[in-house]
Write a structure and sequence with these properties.
The protein is mostly helical and about 100 residues long. It has one domain (about 5-100). The protein contains 3 helices and 2 strands; from the N terminus they run E-E-H-H-H. Strands 1-2 form a two-stranded antiparallel sheet. Helix 2 packs across helix 3 (about 85-100). It is elongated. The structure holds zinc ion (ZN).
Length: about 100
Amino acid sequence: MRRIEDIWCCTECGTEQGRHDQWFDGICEGCNTQKANTQKKDEITSMLIDIFDRIVIDTPNNFDEILEFVFEDVCETADPINWNESDVAIGFRRWIESEK
Ligand SMILES: [Zn+2]
């Protein structure tokens, strides 16, 4: 039997959660992962734009495609917490190589 005090609702998606579901400051695990990914993409976006500035190129039209590639590359190969701009640069280089 579920007791009412064991139930909480995710403030993001409104899904009911039990006491065994992980609590991330009021949101459920799924929403937390999504939020973290969105944040990570935002950070990668600004790092990529910095890189473009440095090598003096305009933001390409297919930026979303590049971002998706680099994001996946960083998720797969870099440290999940201590990733940094050089991981983004490596991801971007891999994208250029994959386009050849
Ligand atoms: Zn949720």
